[in-house]
Amino acid sequence: MSEANSDDGFGGGDPLGGVRLWLLLRVNRWVLTGGILLVVYVVLVLASALELTPLRIIAENQDGLEFLFSSFIGAIITGVSIVVTINQLVLSQELGAVGDQRARMQDSIDFRQDVEGTIDEDASPPEPGPFLWELVDGIEERGRELESAIEDERDEELKATIGDYVEELSGNAHQVKDDLENAQFGTFELIWNALRFNYSRKIYDARKIRADHRESLSEAAAEKLDHIIKTLKFFGPAREHFKTLYFQWELITLSRALLYISVPALTVMGIMIMYVDGNTLLGSTLGIDKLVWITSAGFVVGISPFVVFITYILRIATVAKRTLAMGPFILRESERDQDLG
């Protein structure tokens, strides 16, 4: 009944898996975009050193540059239009009649009151980070209450099992609480730390303890164990709610980024078509034709909207894939001992 509680436990003990998830989730999207574009630029420039047809010959005889950059114009306009349309469809779910809005408001209030009644708080914080902090703290408190309830138990195996369970629960809770304390909604840190609290496994372990030691558990210990399970059940909907809001936030950010990038990218494509041909920038720099340097830069600018789209969607898709099941379901055996579940 072990759990990975390390910061990089998302890789499941696999260093390459940890690096992969770090790139997919933790790295700033603009930094990752810049890194990808830099790699593409370097590859294009170095390709000129291979024994291929020189770019200047292609530009002079085949109108290669015009063909390349004119196709970018249609691709950028079409791609940005599609992404913005999809974003509007997602945001349209927020629209509704006043009755629907009141129902959503009441559901939100009811959920907060249910959580407050379970964690013994008069009023939970309105911000997502502090709210999750209070909920995790309440779960940890329920664990301490369970440990106190079994102090007089004679079943040493039961005491050891519950002791291990509470130790793992408290360790994961402390780790998540430390990082949740200053996490702001709109940044990935809030979602990252919410995902690191493996509530699915904790529900499973608590139910397993109750089933395996039903005869040994005292009434007080069984009640405390049920209280833990009840409190853990609130974490799933809370996390999923904030995850959904984060996805909407990211799609809005993505749409704005594409709109900001598209006009400069289209301008550069226009310049490349109108003013660059086989007679432009004669000579070389560092042994590489100047036309290669400028054409490679133009290509990188042309694909930049697509790369921005990729980096944002990769993170959204990765989070969505790893949180498909809510509650005590673990989709893959390898995820049992990971914090992300």
What attributes characterize this protein structure?
341 residues, mainly alpha, two-stranded antiparallel ribbon, 11 helices, 2 strands, 73% helix, disordered N terminus, transmembrane, membrane, DUF7972, transmembrane helix
Report on this model:
The chain is an all-alpha fold. The chain has one domain (9-335). Helices cover 73% and strands 1% of the residues. It has eleven helices and two strands, in the order ααααααααααββα. The chain has helices at 15-26, 29-47, 55-62, 64-91, 98-119, 128-149, 156-180, 188-195, 199-212, 219-275, 290-322; strands at 284-285, 288-289. It has a two-stranded antiparallel ribbon. β1 and β2 (288-289) form a beta hairpin.
Question: Could you tell me the radius of gyration in angstroms?
Answer: 27 Å
Biggest sheet: strand arrangement: 1-2
In the predicted model, the low-confidence regions spanning at least 5 consecutive residues are 1-12, 334-341
* Percent of residues in helices: over 70%
How many beta-strand elements?
A: 2
**How many structurally independent domains?**
1
**Helix segment tally:** 11
Largest sheet: 2 strands, antiparallel
SSE pattern, N- to C-terminal: HHHHHHHHHHEEH
Assign the structural class, choosing from mainly alpha, mainly beta, alpha/beta, alpha+beta, or little secondary structure.
Answer: mainly alpha
Mean pLDDT across residues: 81
The CA-CA distance between the termini, in Å, is: 15 Å
Beta-strand content bin: under 5%
Shape estimate: elongated
Keywords: Membrane, Transmembrane, Transmembrane helix
InterPro entries: DUF7972
Transmembrane segments: 30-47, 67-86, 257-276, 291-314
